[in-house]
């Protein structure tokens, strides 16, 4: 997917190592298959063939139809700020499909011997289980202004995604104005499904702080937004962690 991917698995018993290795291999293959299917850069991908008019809707794979459905849902939930049909070159689900792929991959790691797992692809993260009995997963949100500093630490049960103009300058497109636009330095979304957390983070970064209005109406999703003046805006249900915890 054009970025660094890592998988961390915590499991019980040395004798279960082979089972875990097989699960990791399946998880990796899930990511590879998704990249091959949805890459906008590979000419033989299903996405490229669809964009080029080589495939009709009744010729699409079940996974592709699922992504189309989820893109429609994300567009409606974000009040049009997530719109993969508005991008130059045709339908481009990049802002959602990576999260979906990671969510599919993490499901391959769930088993009786695995008590915790993390998949991180370019800063979009899905987890399952817990790292230990003391607390859940804690993730630091990088400062959009200084790479060696953090803005906050969040407790995460399922997934966390961050989008920012500092990482994707010129790539975020306002779907209404059809121009490159990033009204926030960064937007981080926590929620039960990385597919939608990914799409919502992209949408918020484009729209700005006003996007918290529609996000608050979506159950179990929270966000921390940082504008270019360094001001932070958070939803009430986020679990912020003291760095000493």
Describe it for me?
The chain has a single domain, classed as T-fold (Roll). Strand 10 (222-226) and strand 11 (232-234) form a beta hairpin. Helix 1 runs antiparallel to helix 4 (94-107) and helix 4 (94-107) packs antiparallel against helix 5 (194-207). The relative contact order is 0.14. It has helices at residues 17-38, 46-51, 62-77, 94-107, 194-207, 212-215, and strands spanning 5-11, 114-121, 124-129, 137-142, 150-156, 159-163, 173-174, 179-180, 186-191, 222-226, 232-234. A seven-stranded antiparallel sheet has the order 1-2-3-6-9-10-11, with helices on one face. The chain has a two-stranded antiparallel sheet with strand order 4-5. The model has no long low-confidence stretch (mean pLDDT 93). The protein has 245 residues and is of the alpha+beta class. The longest helix is centred in the first third of the chain and has 22 residues, at 17-38.
For this entry, give a set of tags.
245 residues; alpha+beta; T-fold; 23% strand; globular; seven-stranded antiparallel β-sheet
Give a quick account of the main beta sheet: strands, pairing sense, barrel closure.
7 strands, antiparallel
Order of strands, widest sheet: 1-2-3-6-9-10-11
Radius of gyration: 18 Å
The stretches of 5 or more residues where confidence is low (pLDDT under 50) are none
- What is the helix content? 25-40%
Q: Which CATH class applies here?
A: Alpha Beta
Separation of the first and last Cα atoms: 34 Å
Question: What CATH architecture label applies?
Answer: Roll
What amount of the residues lies in strands? 15-25%
Query: What spatial form do the alpha-carbon principal axes imply?
Result: globular
* Strand/helix succession: EHHHHEEEEEEEEHHEE
Oligomer: single chain
Number of domains: 1
Superfamily (CATH H level) name: ApbE-like domains
Secondary structure tally, helices = 6
Structural class of the secondary elements?
A: alpha+beta
* CATH-derived topology: T-fold
Q: Total strand count, please?
A: 11
Name the average pLDDT: 93
């Amino acid at each position: 997917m054009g970025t660094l991917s890592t998988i961390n698995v915590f499991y019980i018993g040395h004798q279960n190592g082979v089972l875990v290795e097989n699960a990791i291999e399946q998880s990796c293959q899930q990511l590879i298959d998704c990249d091959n299917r949805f890459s906008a850069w590979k000419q033989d991908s299903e996405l490229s063939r669809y964009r080029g008019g080589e495939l009709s809707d009744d010729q699409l794979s079940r996974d592709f139809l699922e992504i189309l459905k989820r893109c429609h849902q994300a567009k409606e939930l974000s009040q049009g700020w997530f719109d993969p049909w508005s991008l130059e070159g045709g339908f481009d689900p990049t802002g959602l499909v990576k999260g979906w792929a990671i969510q599919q991959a993490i499901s391959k790691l769930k088993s009786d011997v695995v008590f915790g797992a993390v998949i991180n692809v370019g800063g979009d993260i899905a987890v399952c289980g817990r790292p230990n009995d003391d607390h859940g997963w804690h993730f630091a949100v990088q400062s959009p202004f200084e790479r060696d500093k953090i803005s906050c630490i969040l407790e995460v049960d399922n997934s966390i995604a961050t989008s920012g103009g500092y990482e994707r300058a010129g790539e975020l497109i306002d779907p209404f104005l059809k121009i490159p636009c990033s009204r926030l330095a960064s937007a981080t979304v926590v929620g039960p499904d990385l597919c939608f957390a990914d799409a919502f983070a992209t949408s918020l970064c484009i729209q700005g702080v006003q996007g918290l209005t529609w996000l608050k109406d979506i159950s179990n999703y929270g966000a921390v937004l940082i504008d270019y003046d360094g001001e932070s805006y958070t939803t009430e249900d986020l679990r912020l962690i003291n760095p000493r915890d």
